[in-house]
Write a structure and sequence with these properties.
43% of the residues lie in helices and 18% in strands. The protein is of the alpha/beta class. Strands 1-2-3-4-5 form a five-stranded mixed sheet. Strands 6-7 form a two-stranded antiparallel sheet. Strand 2 and strand 3 form a beta hairpin. The longest helix has 23 residues. The C terminus is likely disordered.
Length: 274
Amino acid sequence: MDDQRLGRTVRALRHRLAIRQRDAAARAGVPQSTWSLVERGQIDRLQIRTVRAIVEAVGGQWDPGLRWRGGELDRLLDEGHAALVSATARLLERSAWVAQPEVTFSVFGERGSIDLLAWHLEERILLVVEVKTMLTSVEETLRRHDTKVRLAPTIASERYGWGATAVARLLVLPDSATSRRRVARHATVFRRAYPATGWPLRRWLRGPSRALSGLLFLSPIAPDDARRDPITRHRVRRADGHAQAGRSLSAIASGDGRLDSGGRSAHSSVPDDR
């Protein structure tokens, strides 16, 4: 949606609510002059959070779009998601899980797809894996994952004959500074929803004994394919030939460049899954 169309849409939604600009602006917590800019399609002067607040004030949802080389952007995103799903499947299979990818379902009108539905035969534990290459809405992610966990025993039994004694859940995010910052920003929510992280989670994957809810940061690159440890510092060559040392992912996630003797951020609230 272009800027002019966005402005016309906001104005139409405001008219539908039969409220004045000043009243709508008060709802959004912005000056009337700012609201007027949006309705005139002049959003290039405003911050994204301001535009989103205005759209939501009239009952809309604003998801800014991005185009790149026609339809190739979807393929690019799909490739990233597929790579992360594949890396997760390899990790599970090395730990004696059977992993089924992209398990679609339609149960009592609820439809969707489970990225990975994994089964541990010895312990008869079912693991519902949600893979996200980009964490846009925390609430929506939790809601959809919860739905899949609730429906998983029925799906697994009918589709594969798996009779689970326990159902666990795993959220997988790319091991990137962006993902870690996003999780750190909502640390309390993620600690409650996915309390298991880091090495305790990886030990559980190798020998599950009960239901568990965990969060895993994972690189889509297979360990066998990596030439170096991804958590080591990267050096980026500038155009003038000078090297600039990059900070580790955990330091970036915490927003603090100070590291302890083990190379981890001294203040990061996000556990390191390496």
